[in-house]
Write a structure and sequence with these properties.
Blueprint: H1 6-28, E1 35-45, E2 52-62, E3 67-78, E4 81-97, E5 100-110, H2 120-126, E6 133-141, E7 145-149, E8 154-159
Antiparallel strand pairs: 1-2, 2-3, 3-4, 4-5, 5-6, 6-7, 7-8
Length: about 160
């Protein structure tokens, strides 16, 4: 009976461990986002100095290449003055872990004629200004709904 050298057994064990780690990594890696969802949003903030309210619709599009958009249309009430708002926010996203994603605002395109004070709408409704990012969880719910939430509470529940 011929004895095999130790280096042979070590190389077989090393290859087995590397192959197992690679297969496990592929299994754990979450699939890229690829969906569109529609949701209605009613946001009300009762600041003493200036109560804010938004009542409208958000259409979120997430593409598998790490890009996407948030299309927002509705009525924004600020200092008891109603302003129709329509804008598209372009975003980029990347997977952090499982269903946790980092979403960054790359561009904001306003479509409405009337303007609000700079950054007010983006900061109060979306929670982000141009160039800022936020970590969001995307959880699929029964019936084709998707829950987008930060670490504290749901941000938007929408349907595909």
């Amino acid at each position: 009976m011929k004895c095999r050298p130790r280096w042979f057994y070590l190389s077989v064990c090393t290859v087995t461990v590397m192959l197992s780690a690679t297969l496990t990594g592929w299994h754990i890696h979450s699939a890229p986002l690829d969906f569109s969802c529609h949701g209605n949003l009613v946001y009300h903030d009762t600041l003493e100095s200036a109560p804010v309210r938004f009542d409208g619709e958000i259409v979120a599009n997430f593409l598998p290449d790490g890009e996407g958009s948030l299309n927002i249309k509705g009525i924004y009430t600020y200092h008891n003055q109603q302003v129709p708002v329509s804008r598209q926010t372009l975003i980029s996203w990347k997977t952090l872990h499982n269903n946790l994603y980092d979403v960054r605002v790359t561009s904001v395109i306003p479509y409405s004629q009337r303007s609000l004070p700079a950054g007010l709408f983006d900061h109060t409704i979306i929670g982000l200004k141009l160039g800022e990012h936020q970590q969001l969880r995307f959880n699929r719910l029964p019936g084709g709904a998707v829950n987008l939430s930060d670490f504290y509470s749901p941000v938007l529940v929408c349907t595909e």
